[in-house]
Amino acid sequence: MSETVKFTIDGKECIGKKGQYIVDAAAENGVYIPVLCHMKDVIPAGSCRVCTVKANGRNMAACTSPVEEGMSIENNTAELLDIRKAIVEMLFVEGNHFCPACEKSGNCDLQALGYKYQMMVPRFPYVFERRNIDATTPKIFLERNRCIFCKRCVRMIKDAEGRSIFAFKGRGETLEINIDHKLAANMTDEMAQLAMDICPVGAILRKEVGFNEAIGTRKYDKKVIGSDIENNHQ
Amino acid sequence: MSKPIIATTSLAGCFGCHMSILDIDDRILQLIELVEFNKSPIDDIKTFTKQCDIGIIEGGCCNSENVHVLKEFRKNCKILISLGECAIMGGLPAMRNGIPVKECLEEAYWGGPTVGLNTEKIMPNDPELPMILDKVYPCHEIVKIDYYLPGCAPRADLIWAAVVALVTGDELNIPYELVKFD
Ligand code: SF4
Ligand code: SF4
């Protein structure tokens, strides 16, 4: 059995495994820390920073920092909630997020965090940058306007030989998500569905399906993101 | 004490937000007990006839006339509310942002599939027409906006709760289901 460590989150006593990332250990103790780029059991990217917590007095990404014995973690403080809200707002103004016209609306993690933090208007000016769509592969649309560069697709969607179907191109302002057209040509429906499901926003969409869930019945229409984690452990 | 006065307008919007105002159904009878309406499509008063307390703005600014009306609202209303996605972030009209205006107009009047009859390549240029802006602006990038009510359209219950809270001074507690971006 792996070694256990004791730590606290906002004063609540928690138990985790040595080496476990804060975000995963927190979830097992019924504490929700928001994530956009992180996926359990996948090597973390630490790119979105929305999981920022204060661990022993320092701001850290909860998805890349392991729990330590006696660690004191702050999670739901006013300061951290505002940092997270600011990150969500930044992601909204950086891309082109027209939720009313988005197939992912209602099932989108970024939007759900906007709801959770009651984002009425972003504090930053909108960038309205032109980004192009790649609709040339048989199974999916790549809607770059909504990509938040979480790298989930790059890390997770691979072909039978382990080659990534998605990749980043460029740096900084020119960074964009791309798809390998040769590999994508052999994508199965299941792979396309998985890619759409793991993308936290509406940047990867399956062709020929969509808007097939009624408003009011979608994932986040009535349920706050993270409430399943919080409710599992009461 | 006289009743608070409300004005409303639709800029670059689809009137969906105004429809949502009407969606408060029979509460509209309570509303007219609470407030008086001035310039608004709801009562068809076309120009401000007095200073107003609350101005409700639907739609963003896509042309010079929108900017003019919005500034008039700022001058004539103590409190301005951006109602709906278009007022808050430009909304669907802002999907043209990032594409040069020239390209948009050429596609709309010359290149589009339904403009085959425009063989002389006429671009609407009547001086009466408001000038189209380089992009669609969220209202708060043009004037100061005091409150924001998101949604496409914002839920009628959200509009109702917000207006009642503003008028009565009661605290506004918004249920999770009411703040949506679609
Ligand atoms: S990806 Fe999410 S936030 Fe972006 S437009 Fe779609 S629903 Fe809205
Ligand atoms: S396409 Fe989706 S999964 Fe891939 S990096 Fe962009 S947001 Fe993340």
- Could you state the CATH homologous superfamily of chain B? NADH:ubiquinone oxidoreductase-like, 20kDa subunit
CATH topology of the largest domain in chain A: Alpha-Beta Plaits
Number of helices of chain B: 6
Tell me the number of structural domains of chain B.
1
- Named at the architecture level, the CATH assignment of the largest domain in chain A is 2-Layer Sandwich
Estimate percent helicity of chain B.
25-40%
Write out the distinct hetero groups bound to the structure.
Answer: iron/sulfur cluster
Question: What's the number of helices of chain A?
Answer: 7
Summed over residues and divided by their number, the pLDDT of chain A gives a mean of 95
Distance between the termini of chain A: 26 Å
Helix fraction of chain A, binned, reads 10-25%
What characterizes the major β-sheet of chain A? Answer: 5 strands, mixed
Q: Could you characterize the architecture of this molecule?
A:
The complex is a heterodimer of chains A (234) and B (182). Chain A has 234 residues and is of the alpha+beta class. Chain A is built from 7 helices and 10 strands. A 5-stranded mixed sheet of chain A has the order 2-1-5-3-4. The two termini of chain A are 26 Å apart. The relative contact order of chain A is 0.15. Chain B has a 5-stranded parallel sheet with strand order 2-1-3-5-7, with helices on both faces. Chain B contains 6 helices and 7 strands; from the N terminus they run E-H-H-E-E-E-H-E-H-H-E-E-H. Chain B is α/β, with parallel strands linked by helices and 182 residues long. At the A-B interface, helix 3 of A face helix 4 and strand 7 of B.
